[in-house]
Automatic annotation (TrEMBL):
<dbReference type="InterPro" id="IPR035906">
    <property type="entry name" value="MetI-like_sf"/>
</dbReference>
<dbReference type="GO" id="GO:0006865">
    <property type="term" value="P:amino acid transport"/>
</dbReference>
<feature type="transmembrane region" description="Helical">
    <location>
        <begin position="21"/>
        <end position="44"/>
    </location>
</feature>
<feature type="transmembrane region" description="Helical">
    <location>
        <begin position="244"/>
        <end position="264"/>
    </location>
</feature>
<comment type="similarity">
    <text>Belongs to the binding-protein-dependent transport system permease family. HisMQ subfamily.</text>
</comment>
<protein>
    <submittedName>
        <fullName>Polar amino acid transport system permease protein</fullName>
    </submittedName>
</protein>
<keyword id="KW-0472">Membrane</keyword>
<keyword id="KW-1003">Cell membrane</keyword>
<keyword id="KW-1133">Transmembrane helix</keyword>
<feature type="transmembrane region" description="Helical">
    <location>
        <begin position="64"/>
        <end position="93"/>
    </location>
</feature>
<dbReference type="GO" id="GO:0022857">
    <property type="term" value="F:transmembrane transporter activity"/>
</dbReference>
<dbReference type="InterPro" id="IPR010065">
    <property type="entry name" value="AA_ABC_transptr_permease_3TM"/>
</dbReference>
<keyword id="KW-0812">Transmembrane</keyword>
<dbReference type="GO" id="GO:0043190">
    <property type="term" value="C:ATP-binding cassette (ABC) transporter complex"/>
</dbReference>
<dbReference type="InterPro" id="IPR000515">
    <property type="entry name" value="MetI-like"/>
</dbReference>
<dbReference type="Pfam" id="PF00528">
    <property type="entry name" value="BPD_transp_1"/>
</dbReference>
<keyword id="KW-0029">Amino-acid transport</keyword>
């Protein structure tokens, strides 16, 4: 009886986890190498002089806050309020059983979501005075900015609000009607409040977008005291022959948008925890 030869085990192949670690390590290495190349090749003294000149930045304060930042907040707030009110009306029209209401809301939403915001600003500043001779938008530049931003925002908010209303269980409306509530009262007291709790995060994101879109106010022909952040930074950059004012204006935008973005994430996370 002959003994069988011993079989040597083949070396095991590389595990999937190990391959993933090597791939990620290679990606990190490439990213670090690209950053190192940029750091070594960039002309940092020239960049600092043109984009981070502290002497130029000091001259912007406090006007960039009391004029640029304040006007940006005012224009954004006016546009958001108008967009929210008009968006709610359009959402209810979209859900209406009356066909002409649905048609009007659908056409409005499709048109204003499809038009560039710049064209809406031009229409408000030029088209309204031509269409209604002798009339002006109340509030001057602030009114025109709020109207243009609100008309555009309403189209997006209408769809958001409609989705929120449809997300509320239909049984709640039926239960309210069975208790003797009218359709309008049930919507005001029960459905719409619940819908707004659902759509607060996307509405907050819409506020962030409006804050950035307010930069188009510069096409309305504003005065020195009516400038928002983009116009303020661009004018000062032209006067100083330096790009630092535009960078400072960008930082001021972040002072508005980052807290709003964080708030939207927290509200969304809280909403998801409430659904579990």
């Amino acid at each position: 009886m002959t003994a069988e030869p011993m079989k040597t085990a083949a070396p095991p192949g590389m595990s999937r986890r190990r391959r993933r670690q090597l791939v990620l390590g290679g990606q990190y290495g490439l990213f670090a190498a690209a950053v190192l190349v940029v750091v070594l090749l960039a002309d940092w003294p020239q960049l600092r002089a043109n984009f981070a000149n502290l002497d130029v930045a000091r001259e912007l304060f406090p006007d960039i806050l009391t004029i640029g930042l304040l006007n940006t907040a005012v224009y954004t707030g006016l546009g958001f309020v108008l967009g929210l009110v008009l968006g709610l009306v359009l959402a209810l029209m979209r859900l209406s059983s009356v066909a002409p209401y649905r048609w009007f809301a659908t056409v409005y939403i499709e048109i204003f979501r499809g038009l560039p915001l710049l064209l809406i600003f031009i229409f408000v500043s030029v088209g309204v005075p031509l269409a209604f001779p002798g009339s002006n938008v109340p509030g001057g530049v602030a009114g025109q900015a709020g109207l243009a931003l609100g008309l555009a925002a309403a189209a997006y908010m209408a769809e958001t609000i409609r989705a929120g209303i449809e997300a509320v269980p239909r049984g709640q409306l039926e239960a309210a009607r069975s208790l003797g509530m009218s359709y309008g009262r049930a919507m005001r007291s029960i459905i719409i409040p619940q819908a707004f709790r659902i759509i607060i995060p996307p509405l907050t994101n819409q506020l962030v977008l409006l804050c950035k879109d307010s930069s188009l106010v510069l096409f309305l022909g504003v005065t020195l005291e009516q400038r928002e952040l983009t116009k303020f930074g661009r004018d000062l950059a032209g006067q100083q022959g330096n790009t630092t004012p535009i960078i400072v204006a960008g930082i001021c935008y972040l002072l508005l948008t980052i807290p709003l973005s964080l708030l939207a994430r927290r509200l969304e996370a809280r909403q998801q925890r409430g659904r579990r």
